[in-house]
Amino acid sequence: TFTEMCGLAPSRVLGSLSYGAGGWEHASVRMLPSGKVEVITGSSAHGQGHETAWSQIVADQLGVPFEDVEVLHGDTQISHKGLDTYGSRSLVVGGQALVNAAQKVIEKAKPLAAHVLEANVDDLEFTDGKFTVRGAGADQEGLSLAGLALSVFAAHDLPDGMEPSLDADATYDPVNFSYPHGTHLCAMEIDTETGESTMRSYVCVDDVGNVVNPLIVDGQVHGGLVQGIAQALWEEAVYDDQGTLITGSFVDYTLPTSADTISFVTDRTVTPSTTNDLGAKGVGEAGTIASTPAVVNAVLDALRPLGVKDIVMPCTPERVWNAIQGAAHEPVVESAAPHFEESSPNQDTPETEGGTL
What we know:
The protein is α+β, with helices and mostly antiparallel strands. Helices cover 30% and strands 16% of the residues.
């Protein structure tokens, strides 16, 4: 069971910790005359599906079709402001920056919409991508944001003092970290003859706040689980006595494959974060945080009846087998604790030869 502190924030707090950078993130939203939207983000995806989630956020905010949003990132000639992707911060910081930029676009469009509709700016409402006049009735047609973008580009009839642009930038500095949490359970079986560890079941429930895209979240949880499980069971950088790395290739360094893992049972509860308007928390590291101790604890739990108290990660077959052999040859120390007879004379005892735990 874990609680994580992620979405590095605020910049002043990071400064007090002598951190090398701030905790803010930058975003830009460009309204093209075609009605399509370009989004520039300082966060940069490397497999998390930002392009999809960011498009969903902007489409919801501006009321434009999802397929009309293009997300640009990862090139300093395009996106020259931002602090990138790490620490499960992309959505809770970068996503909120997008929301703020989109809201600025709407505010910039209001004077033009009021001018066209011959209404007061304060009487306007923006719903589902359209400006309408409050109290004008349900039959009013309204003005779409996409249509206004073309009018701004043409600049034929702009209100006095209005520049021909609806583009907006926003930099968001969080007020606090976000705190995802969860509980993970793992069942392992150990072959006492070979030291091989086999995962029998893995069940987890995480709380990452409001979810933008459930499929992406499930994928990040699965990927995080496999990474953490691999740290517990297989992955290791080994050096010889001269300091030479001897696991420098995938011939010697074990990476997990689908054949090495099982189908996970995952679920989640939803407790919205109070530190951002999206109500989101970080998810990228949840699986990696919980799975490693859950797996190692399960291995040790299986070996506890044999007297094994600790195994240094990763719990490779060799280390597990050596731990079993070492425990079998340790002298028995009488405990000062009271001794209780087993409740059932037929209760199975752990096997150390040719069995499993």
